[in-house]
Amino acid sequence: MNYDLRIKNYLVFSLFFLFWSCNSEKAQEKVNLESFKNYNKSAKELTAEFQNDKSNLNILINKSEYKLSLRYKDQVLKEYPVVFGDNPVDDKRMEGDRCTPEGQFKIRDLYPHKKWSKFLWIDYPTKDSERKFKESKSKGEIPEDVTIGGEVGIHGVPKDKDNLILEKQNWTWGCISLQNKDVDDLYSVAFKGMEVLIIKN
């Protein structure tokens, strides 16, 4: 075997080993449900005392922690595990980038979904989303002919696919995904106009 071929084989093996190691590590990373506040209590039970002040119920989503928090004002009532788009790190800039948008949003509508149990549709793009979109275009960070996208929301998973959440598999096109029983629980207390804050960390 000549020197060049040995180098080539070594590089191929190294890349394969790196890919296998990263994926093995990812596959082994499991969600510890016990670490999520009040996870085994129902959202209705936890929000019962705030029904006369329901407008102060809100949602905080922390992308780096893979966590959705149901809150009353700044008080965390319950936490759920979530996953995001294929790129869970960057802020959404355009349609098809598979990033989850960051910023302040509201639920514009919510309804049952035939594939993902429930869908809580947020009002992306907002004026701030449009500002960031135009800024990215002007800096040449995204192509001139792309669109900003839309139809972003909070939803469940395909039937019998809770492992997508429990194994932190970012599978959406930019939406926030929960286990179906969790999105059903959240849906029971959510409402149009509910504030949703999405942060990186």
What does this structure look like?
The structure is a single chain. The protein is α+β, with helices and mostly antiparallel strands and 201 residues long. 27% of the residues lie in helices and 23% in strands. It contains 5 helices and 8 strands. It has helices at residues 3-28, 43-47, 127-138, 163-166, 180-187; strands spanning 57-62, 67-72, 75-81, 103-113, 117-122, 153-155, 176-177, 195-199. The protein has an 8-stranded mixed sheet with strand order 3-2-1-8-4-5-6-7. The longest helix is centred in the first third of the chain and has 26 residues, at 3-28. It is globular. The model is unreliable at 5-28 (pLDDT under 50).
Question: Strand-residue fraction?
Answer: 15-25%
Order of helices and strands: HHEEEEEHEHEHE
Mean pLDDT: 89
- Morphology call: globular
Low-confidence stretches: 5-28
Could you tell me the number of beta strands?
Answer: 8
Q: Share of helix among residues? A: 25-40%
Structural class: alpha+beta
Annotation field: number of helices: 5
Q: Biggest sheet, strands in spatial order? A: 3-2-1-8-4-5-6-7
Sheet of most strands: 8 strands, mixed
Termini separation (Å)?
51 Å
Please compute the radius of gyration using only Cα atoms. 20 Å
Summarize the helices and strands and which ones pair or pack.
Layout: H1 3-28, H2 43-47, E1 57-62, E2 67-72, E3 75-81, E4 103-113, E5 117-122, H3 127-138, E6 153-155, H4 163-166, E7 176-177, H5 180-187, E8 195-199
